[in-house]
Amino acid sequence: MADSGSNKTTWIGPTRSGPALLFFVFALAIALLTPEMVAHGFAHYNYPPNAPGRALAAERMGSLLVYTIPQTSISVARFLAANLGAAAAAHLPLGEPFFLPVRLGILLWLGVFFLEPRLRDFVPLRRRNR
Asked: Per-domain residue ranges for the chain?
């Protein structure tokens, strides 16, 4: 069985996922406050003009809230990683850099890795003596 986590891992987790969460909150604020900017962004990536920008913002807000619950963080991290993968894929046909969504996904998973002992048991960084 895993230990509950040292003081060091308790602080490393939030510092890793914090920037990604702040980015999501920033993007959420933009989506809710300036829907015309969101519509312009959808048009730039060849999505239909009636794409549900506010519905996507609400879905992300709910995901972020559920992500902060330790028991559900792994499941939501998988969902957000898929969401970020789709965002990275949207940049590829236009030849735009796609590294930001990839980095955000890595930061989210690092945060979960350091906060969740079950995940550290499943994917150990080093071999434990038995």
From this structure: 7-122
The Cα 75–Cα 26 span in angstroms is: 22
**Reported pTM:** 0.71
pLDDT digits (tens, 9 = 90+) for 28-85: 888 888 888 888 888 888 888 777 777 888 888 888 888 878 788 888 888 888 888 9
**Residue 101: which of 73, 119, 82 has the closest Cα?**
82
Crossing angle of helices 99-115/73-91, nearest 10°? Answer: 170
- CA dist 56 and 53 (Å) reads 5
Distance CA 111, CA 5 (A): 13
Distance, CA of 29 to chain centre: 16
The contacts of residue 88 (CB under 8 Å, 6+ apart) are: 98, 101, 102
